[in-house]
Amino acid sequence: MLRTFLNAFRVADIRKKLAFTAGMLALYRIGAYIPAPGINIDAVDQISQNFTGSNVLGFLNLFSGGSLQRFAIFALGIMPYITASIMLQLLTVVVPALDKLRKEGEVGQQKITQYTRYLTVGLAFGQSIGYVFLFRTFSSGGVEVVDAFTFGRVFVIVMTLTAGCVLLMWLGELITQRGIGNGISLMIFASIAAGIPDGIVKWWNNPDQVFKVMMPFLALAIIAAIVFMQEGQRRIPIQYAKRVVGRRMAGGGSTYLPLRVNMAGVIPVIFAASLMAFPPTVGELTQASWAQDFSAFFSPNDWPYLIGESFLIIVFTYFYTAVTFNPVEQADNLKKYGGFIPGVRPGRPTAEYLDRILARLTFPGALYLAAVAALPTILINQTSANFFFGGTSILIVVGVALDTMKQLEAQLMMRNYEGFLK
Q1: Angle at 225 between CA 304 and CA 298, to 5 degrees
Q2: Which of 16, 259, 388, 419 is most deeply packed, by most CB within 10 A?
């Protein structure tokens, strides 16, 4: 594997792509330390502890690579673009015009991408306004985060944060086009990986010696389980009938349709974590007694939170799998190109067969996502140890690493080198 990795640097084209990707990610990390204009840095440091907990602010701060707690120009991170992408992907199911664009191929996909960019700008603008007033709420009674809270100063800050989000969206697309891997995913990967040194320091300084010894083995076991489940798939055999084209016999042969155990990826975990983190956050921002009780009931380290999050993960897994994979459409495409599943009639019986197989695969995939997301919290309650990374972060890091390795593998195989997967 080491020899294969060195071969990647011996190819000039791949070496340029790796250098370009590293340069863009370095630029992204530099922007995470540049504060927005008109911000009192000392006041921001005083309220930074509000963004290090298990609430939704800590969740957003993790995905921004610590930019949010510093009120940097990249404080929004890439989350507005991800939210816009998910919204457009879900709207294609209920809006016939968007579904028609999706079926038009590359031209239609470019239109959907353009709509996603417009929606990203709108979401970033609204989120920037919310962050400005949120920081002002945290700093009430102390030193003001914004030196002069005027319309002009707030407008400059909001436009700076929005422009930073648009710049990140552009950098992500550049990495996808000219680098290695998916740019947006690699940015989230870099944001989470930026906290690894702090996590290692906390692990090493932990007074629990049993936890200090067992943590590396536990982390390796979790990563191995994630890789095993992420790569697990059910291969449906597909047979293509031979066709006569002119005087030649064309077509024929056999292949397979891969159905992954976890087709929804990490999206259900992100949705569920965002929804379940909302009650504790409301309790922090509101001083009402009912809000405090509601927040305490859904504390991130208690069983009601774990049960609710696991239930939402299972529901969103089924929903998102149904959105991304349409058995009826797959059956129509097979029938159109002369393909069929041995022992199953084309058309509606094929769609019902695929739907039944998909339902059986989705259930263990949903349980797997719920288990990985809840495992760190359960271990915290049982061992009183501090896990720096949650299940969502581990899922994203391992998933992005696997996808990037596969793309590098494909680049090496195109140039007659042996890949990573031997």
Answers
A1: 10
A2: 259
